[in-house]
Amino acid sequence: MEQEAEITLGLFEKYIYLWIVLCGAAGLGLGRLSPEVAAGVNRLNISGVSLPLAGLMFFLMYPTMAKVELGEMAHALRNVGPTVLTLVANWIIAPPLMVLLAALCLENPDFRAGVILLGISPCTGMVLFWIAFARGNVTQGIVVTAINAVSTLLFYAPLAAFYLGVGGVPVPFSLVALGVLLFVALPLLAGQSSRWILTRLKGAAWFSGRFLPVMNHLAAASLLAMLVLLFSSEGRLILEYPATVALIALPLFLHFFLMLGGVFGVARLLGFRYADAAMAALIGSSTQFEVAVGTALVVFGLGSGAALATVVGPLIEVPVMVTATKGLRRSQAWFIRP
User: Cβ atoms within 10 A of the Cβ of 158, count?
Assistant: First the structure.
């Protein structure tokens, strides 16, 4: 069962940095040569959530959710230590740390605002894939992301108003609800339904040995397609403002790895098993860029520096997460229990 819970991208995983570079270049080329294609894709959205991105995210998340043992959910609910650590990291540590890093790294107040909006929006979707990729506790991650979704509705607007010093920050209800529905609930429902049906029709061995490997390949293709989509839609920023993008990316990189290392280190000191420590570190350091982008557009407007800064988040997410998960997996030997 432990082996079944693993997510692997096979050949894609072995050369994943090469695929990232190639897909990024392909996306930049597509956005440069056919900007109307990127513009058309951007128009396909519901309440700010990209439908093409949601479709790719579904196939990315599906094998992860199909591997989840819902029978373990009761244990995850009782396993409060990793949940508390993750929530403390998301809501108490991450926001002021991002404010500090933004102040140290960025002079432009609009860029600082966009970066702060990212820092106070904990991830509730794609991070579950990365938890599985790192051999973390996905079931526990589902519990934490559900709590984070509710917490975002309660805390995001007042935290944004407090740290940005602006009034009238909207509660991103539609973005949070759609994100949870599209990126967590639907893949979980589809994964568990297909698991129940196919194991009864074809057997558990066929499901885990034949079906899921094919779905893993589909997930790998979806991940690479997402890179092309993101870089074709937003990659013009890199071509037109490379120095600005690098400057904005600096506090985001620092924030991610400081939070990742800090939460992971605390989890190890507290005696967590590796799977819980990896889950807490990845969720505790991740951000939900859809919420940040949507809020920046409403509060600061289209074309603002804040909106531009929030867009940098998704552009760096995949290479940063790949690096993080590979590093976490190499650290499993530090733990007595997996």
Answer: 12
